[in-house]
Amino acid sequence: MSRIVFWLALIFLVFFAVRSKIRGAQKRNEQQFRQAPPHQEVPPGQGGGAAGYRARGTEKALADAETMLECAKCGIFFPASEAVHAHGRDYCCAAHAAAPAA
To answer: Where are the domains of the chain?
Structure first.
């Protein structure tokens, strides 16, 4: 009988400890949400999904994004900072810039 009481008490304590941890995590998430900057609304027709908002961090990702160019020889896309300009066109590498146009 004492073993049953021991196991019931142990289960009871574990249950309430886990419940307390979950509630504490929810409260911390709510506080962080209240302190977070508001989402920027996306104008209609410019994406944003059904909710009509842009996720946090998207603005930073858009600011850090780099323009992609297409190689005139092979058609691969590459960052504009890595472009090799020759003959008025953009190439992905010096070998493609030096090769005769096909």
So the answer is: 1-37, 63-102
